[in-house]
Design brief:
The structure is a homodimer of 127-residue chains.
Chain A (H helix, E strand, L loop, with lengths): L9 E9 L2 E4 L1 H13 L2 H7 L4 H14 L5 E4 L7 E4 L1 H31 L4 H5 L1
Antiparallel strand pairs in A: 1-2, 3-4
Chain lengths: 127, 127
Amino acid sequence: MAKQKVETEIFLRLRVMHGGSIIFGPGRADLLALIESHGSIAAAGRQMGMSYKRAWALVDSLNTSFASPLVEAVKGGAGGGGAKLTTLGAELLSAYRRLEQECADVSTGALAPMQAALAVSPEQKSG
Amino acid sequence: MAKQKVETEIFLRLRVMHGGSIIFGPGRADLLALIESHGSIAAAGRQMGMSYKRAWALVDSLNTSFASPLVEAVKGGAGGGGAKLTTLGAELLSAYRRLEQECADVSTGALAPMQAALAVSPEQKSG
C-alpha cells in the first residue's frame, strides 16, 4: 500500500561498522559500482559529485580495511590505464547489495509506525 | 562461530532516511532512551558526551520530523521540570530497536564475506 507516494517514503541506509569506523556503506557501494562501470576512480567520483581526492580517500579506506584491495589499477590500454574491482571488491559489493535487500525486506513492519507518523509538509496537505 | 572475537566483529548501523534527511538513527535512538531514563535532555546529552545545544537540536529535529513531538517538557517537580518521551516517542524508539534486531538477525549471511575479509591488525596477528 501507499506505493504511489514514492517521494514521501522512508527508507534505510546501512553502514557496516568495525569498531568505531565505517568499513562499508551506501557511498562506498555506489563508488565501487561506478568504478566497475566507468573503469576509473576519477570518473566514478565525478559522477557522484565527489572530488578526486575524496574518491581516492574512500578507495584507500576500502583497500586498507580488508585483507586485500577491493580496487586495483589497470595498466595501459587506450585510456592510459584506469581502475577495476578485484574479485574481493565485486564479492563485497554484492554482499552489501544483498544486505540492503534483506534488511529492506524485513524492515517494512518496523518502519510502518515511522512512516505513518511522518510530518506532512504544507504542500502535501494542500495536494 | 568466532563468538569469542567480540572486538573484531563487524555490525550494522541503521539510518532511517526521508528524502535526503536522517529522521531516525542510532544517535537519536540512544538520546531518546537516555531522556526516558534520566528525565532530562541535558543529562541525556551529557551522558553521550554531547553539548546541550547539540542534544536540543537533535530533539528538535525529531520533534519536527513527525506529526507530533517525540519528547515533551515536564513542568515542575523536585528538579524544576525536565523532559520525557511522548507515547509516539516511546513507540518509535521501540520500532527502531525492533528494526535493529530484525536487520541484525537477517544480516549474518551477507556480513560473513566482509567479516572473513577483514584486515588483521598487527596486534591480532601476533596474538
